[in-house]
Amino acid sequence: MKGFRVWGLGFSLIIFVLLYPIPYTLGAILASENDIGYSSLDPSNPFYFIKGIREEIELKLALTPYVKHVRHLEFATRRLREARNLVDKNPSLIPASLERYTSNLNTLLDRRTISGELALKIESSLTSHLFVLQKMHEDLKDNNAKRSIRSAVDKILRRPDIEKPARLKACEFLKKEASSSALNQAEQIVTKERAQKCLGV
Questions:
Q1: Total structural domains in the chain?
Q2: What predicted TM-score, i.e. pTM, was given to this entire model?
Q3: Where in the sequence is the domain holding 36, given as residue range(s)?
Q4: For residue range 9-67, what is the model confidence (pLDDT) as tens digits?
Q5: What is the dihedral of CA 82, 89, 13, 98, to 10 degrees?
Q6: 3-state SS of 122-183?
Q7: What is the model's pLDDT at position 6?
Q8: What does the alpha-carbon distance between residue 53 and residue 15 come to, in Å, rounded to a whole number?
Q9: Cα separation of 25 and 152, whole Å?
Q10: Which is deepest, 72, 89, 118, 158, by most CB within 10 Å?
């Protein structure tokens, strides 16, 4: 009987963690203008799998296309918060986090097919994402992590719904990195091509 109560308590705790919104509101609390905050649970945590379960539930409870897009946008922001956490904790995990980020990004429609509040929400969020990615790149020393950041920036810039000032700043970022001695020749060529395409050269 005692074992059953312990099992029940453990199960209740898991349900509480899955359904209670603290891990996600924390990031919003710490965020400021043009920023996204930090994650309270990232891939370096052994309980990170709980977050995936929660998000599956959130997506299943999204009953309209609008809510589903808002969920995917929030999931992308969460992945970026997690990658940001890893800058000082475990940079080797950043590439995988940014792969999941771009996967969520790829599910989002752009302003050619949507308009109104959702389009503005996506545009504003992606502007913040570009800012955060460039700051992460500046703070990192791990070359693989930095490479994944440049790739993520390029994928965002391929979308038409980026504010012009943010786009130009990100294009200049790629242009500057293309001449960096920290990149090998192949990386310099790829980054230069991305910068030229971005700037319309």
A1: 1
A2: 0.81
A3: 2-199
A4: 454 445 444 444 444 444 444 445 567 889 989 999 999 999 999 999 999 998 998 89
A5: 20
A6: HHHHHHHHHHHHHHHHHHCCCHHHHHHHHHHHHHHHCCCCCCHHHHHHHHHHHHHHHCCCCC
A7: 47
A8: 10
A9: 25
A10: 72
